[in-house]
Model the fold of this input.
Amino acid sequence: MSIVEIRDLSFSYRKDGEEKVVLDKLNIDIEDESFVAVIGQNGSGKSTFAKHLNAILLPMGGRVVVCGINTKNEKELFALRKNAGMVFQNPDNQIVATTVEEDVAFGLENLGIEYEEMHKRVKEALIAVNMYDLRKRAPHLLSGGQKQRVAIAGILAMEPRCIIFDEPTAMLDPVGRREVMDTIIRLNKEKHITVIMITHHMDEVVCASRVIVLNKGKIEMDASPREVFKNVEKLKELGLDAPQSVLLLHALKDAGFDVEANALTPEECAEEILACLKKREVQK
Amino acid sequence: MSNIIEVKNLSYSYSADNLAKDTALVNVSFGFEQGEFIGIAGHTGSGKSTVAQILAGLLTPSEGRIFIDGEEIEDYKEACRALRRRVGIVFQYPEHQLFEETVYKDIAFGPKNKGLSEEEIDRCVRKSALLAGVGEELFEASPFELSGGQKRRVAIAGVLATEPKVLILDEPAAGLDPKSKHRLLKELHKIQKEENTTIILISHSMEDLSEHAQRIIVLNHGVKFKDASPKEIFSSQKALKECGLEIPEIAQVVSLLNSGGMNIGSDIFTLKEAYDTITQKLGVGK
Done:
């Protein structure tokens, strides 16, 4: 079943009397419970696309239906945003309260959820992102990764079916990145939340089951990470890159070595090279 | 060659009473020469930004000695002024600091404040725009109409226009796509080479640092953990992880190859080195 249905989505703006097309008749269906990464160079339309998913922007042409709700249906705006939450780049801009648990409760209070229920949901959300022990902490005393996880808990407490992440790790250090990525993967696997994640980090793309590559407002590639990273040359043309393990295997393959260039992780890459070494030793 | 800037036993604490929990920097010493490319790495809260601000003369240390061109400047106020004259700093997301009507005016802001003549200002603007990769066709555009990568280059050009001897950049590639990132890092090398500017690159990305810096200073909870070449830094992977840093992906592959019996040495961490060593080990390709 599709949780996101996009038909002929177009979006543009005027600059110096000229029409600048940002999204050009996009058609995308996203399966419920899937993990989709969206990549593309700056200006490819990624963020504009993401903002259409929970009606921060409305289509100029075509339509966007998320969780069965057309984003143009103003009456259903609350229901839409409850079902499709969004986490942004900068955690500092998303935190409003003076303690972690109050921050997570903020959205629920606005929905008028009963106290008992609210308590239960805040607790569950904080446990899900591994922040329950720090629930009484003031947000400004948290690390970047912790703040970002609190922001995720705030969305989670609304019990969404789908979360859209717009470069959630861009401002974090390696430890923070790891914490946030582990959390996102777990929400997808264990809580069956659909994840749509925009990122510039090619090693994060590997975690997704599907990658959509945007270029100039159009879909340039749409396949599994393994398929997408087979086209290293094309990715580079599009201003993108591939994980270093992928690049290393491609270079070896291009030099004529007997390796399959379809590994994604350091482990798979090392395995492939060791297998090649073995084959050569046998030949000798 | 002698150090153009050197700091000895530098400490910084947020409160006057020196409580351990308020201390951002403890007893840190290092120096650098003209024209070096140095990386500073560390987890969030490791003291990276505090060091940067002290070096740029924006923050007065709580304790420590500051040497400029080999001479100690004891008065901190005077030291800060001297540092500000030599060091330019590009903060995180510098495009948020663009404010003028046109790109040209924005880049010209620094030299103009220095009281240079129109001609001198023009020379500075054109030169730093060229160095930072800002095309002259953008001079009359509003900085706010530019793409993310362009905006960032304009912001860097603005700092270069003050002709600093040392350029500090705090996570200059955050939020840029891979192509813009590579381009930006290449431009930093150009600045280092053509102007003999010292580049201090602060980054979380050990991959970027290992590829570009000649020397990396690793900070951990306000203490200098290491100051060494990338090779040396990455030879102790376990210690790096304990400092909250990542190991470059290639170094991970190499260590897996070694434990799988390939024996190619543990000090390889860039794609090119790995490729060269592995092809040698495998023998000539078909």
